[in-house]
């Protein structure tokens, strides 16, 4: 079925993204996987190409178009290319809304031009060693010292953690205020007391730098408070829907890519003198996978359209995230099986897709948390 959520301008942007990835990403991605992070040069190239901050106002160096469909196109094209290490979606889909919605005019002037040019790489630090998806269990704290804040604590599983120049940190600023006791503080690269721990060794996403961060007496000036003091948890709840939709978009695209790889492989690979695709089991497996991919994409596309219209609810975003990421896991697993022994060899893209896809049901809030969100909305 033809997708109807994109228009000619989105198609042109897709061509731009696909050309950029073929030239600036694909030839280097294997080396980035060995290095454990991408080159900063690709961020600068992406900024010049107009791939960063498409929804940031032009006065701050962005594209000036608040339309999540452009974000979705870029995520789909990175996924199509197997470019799992490039952190552009985190910058565009996750961090940008915080800066745009909560940033003061001065903060926007200070940070957004570099954000859009690729000179400033960003991250958001929520997860802690002892909290996971339990945001209200955050222990990282900040106390007032005059107009400034003194930040102490640690975070883990932070995407872009090694390379980030600017990190939005969720900290507890009033232990007696419940959900109103958290604040977003922006920590910049050279602030004394801000240290990066080891680059974490992951099962997949090898080129995506993921790190532990520590904060020991970091003095964060009042000018780096993002949004209202005490409004951090509310801001997270408002912005997590887009993050989860972004994961759903990538998951749906990943499932479609796995199917495409497997259809091509089963047509070419022979067993018992026949193409693997000629066996009834192969056809039935592929038929089921194709149906799951099509149904998932239809729902995710509807969620994209709802989000662009300003109507996507947190529960629907949670549905898209858990469903699409679970479908991705099932699809990739079945596609590995159809590849046989070669499906377990990392020289085949399906094997890399297998290890890269597993985390989709974990980050952005585990799928169990997604079901809890849906269930609470359903039964309230």
Low-pLDDT parts are none
Number of alpha- plus pi-helical segments? 11
For the largest beta sheet, what order do the strands appear in spatially? 1-4-5-8
Total beta strands: 10
Straight-line N-to-C gap:
36 Å
Q: Please tell me how large the radius of gyration is.
A: 21 Å
Tell me the helix content.
Answer: 40-55%
Order of helices and strands: HHHHHHEEEEEEEEHEEHHHH
Strand content: 15-25%
State mean pLDDT (0 to 100 scale): 96
Computed structural class: alpha+beta
Gross geometry: globular
- Major β-sheet annotation: 4 strands, mixed
Q: Which terms would index this structure?
A:
alpha+beta, 4-stranded antiparallel sheet, 11 helices
Explain how this protein is built.
By secondary structure, the protein is an alpha+beta fold. It has 11 helices and 10 strands. Strands 1-4-5-8 form a 4-stranded mixed beta sheet, covered by helices on one side. A hairpin with a 2-residue loop joins strand 9 (270-271) and strand 10 (274-275). Helix 7 (232-268) packs parallel to helix 9 (314-339) and helix 7 (232-268) packs antiparallel against helix 10 (349-357). The mean pLDDT is 96.
Indicate the topology:
Elements (H helix, E strand, L loop, with lengths): L7 H17 L4 H7 L4 H10 L18 H13 L7 H15 L2 H13 L4 E4 L15 E5 L2 E12 L6 E7 L9 E7 L5 E6 L10 E11 L4 E2 L5 H37 L1 E2 L2 E2 L4 H29 L5 H26 L9 H9 L9 H13 L1
Parallel strand pairs: 1-4
Antiparallel strand pairs: 2-3, 3-7, 4-5, 5-8, 6-7, 9-10
Helix pairs in contact: 1-4, 4-5, 4-7, 5-7, 7-8, 7-9, 7-10, 8-9, 9-10, 9-11
